[in-house]
Write the structure tokens for this entry.
Amino acid sequence: MLKDTLFLLAPGFVDSGRREYCPECAEIWGLLNYFPAIKESVELVYQTIERPRAMMQLRLGADNQNCPTLVLSDTSPRFENCGILLAGDVSFIDNARDIGRYYAERYGTPFPRGS
């Protein structure tokens, strides 16, 4: 079975002259730790803050390099109202709340509050 690919920014990157982290990536990291079975179902790939992000650009094109991004495998289910986008024939979700909704639909986890 092919795994989905989850792109996150590595924690503690330097930008604007200081160490920072991505709040949306931290939200997804927290979700993976709440529900470890999900973590085992994805290939986790850390990206740098700098662009271009070559692996993302190769799979999704130059305009789709946001983190967090979940790239769905060909065999993964698709659900409505989860913000699934297309880059060619590749399905992906490019924000934390929609990824959380997707995981709720797919794995039965709680939905993100307010969604």
The first strand starts at residue 4 and ends at 9. The chain has a mean pLDDT of 96. The radius of gyration is 14 Å. The longest helix spans residues 23-34.
